[in-house]
Amino acid sequence: MKDLKKSEALIEMTKTIAVTGKGTSKEEDVRSKYLLSVDLEDIRYQAKSGLNFPFRVPEMVEHILQFFDDNCIKGTFFVVGKTAREIGSLIQQVHKTGHELGCHTYDHLQLDRMTPEIFRENLLRNIDVLNRLGVDSVYGFRAPDFSLIESTQWAWEVLSELGFRYSSSVLPARNPLYGWDGFPTCPLRMDNGLWELPISITSVIGFKIPFAGGIYLRFFPKIVLHQFCRKHLKRGSPLVGYIHPYDIDTAEKKFKVEKNPFLNKLVYYNRKSTFTKLEFLLKRYVPMRFLDYVHILEKNMEKSNINA
After folding, report:
1. How many domains does the chain have?
2. Smaller CB count within 10 Å for the chain: N or C?
3. Residue 21 domain flag
């Protein structure tokens, strides 16, 4: 945890700026911001028989783009390179309509299954696909399954070396898949200048839950989500949420994604509620692209005359 320990002073600084708005104008205030992202991947690759089923990502991306347009928002898409190759024209549309595009690895491979060298090559392939589709600059990254944990924090250095400005890859809680319990819940700037924007969590009867995305967003009622959001924002951190194309796909034929029958049921649970809940949250919190939020954090640091 070398980088994290060295950055402890920045944790309190970031909280102070976020909670008080110190040194900010109205436009630069980081309070009540909602960083909504799309993890653009093909769920079929997560199942042995998945590719025998129809490819539904293009239709879902079109629905998401229409939803964003209807609600006048710009979002951030973390894109798997292999999927981007299959829907190149849609990726170009996402870019042309003002949404941010970031990397989600080339093939949705978790960080603990790679070495730093393999990760670097994987990212370069991911970036190359986006560059060929007209995305000149890529500054954001999200690790598959939030697999940036204590043992894979070497990824920050690789990201910095390749010119990334931020990562949103840490789930700061224990989790059945990946999680980093004890990691700060606020944005954190590393010594190399890279920002980590952790997924939003809240505590429910002693359990830390990433309430703002995926199955958790689909599971909890709107009023409960609203309470979680208000509680989280009081700590001064932005709402960091996410959806996948399959989170809105109510017509997808069911296939086995998870070995556990209960977990597999959750993959398909209450997908019809996703857009309704997002619309509810978007009326109450200010949506913003991840990179725009990082710009505000950096500008606030400069105004506060704090040297990292």
Report:
1. 1
2. N
3. no
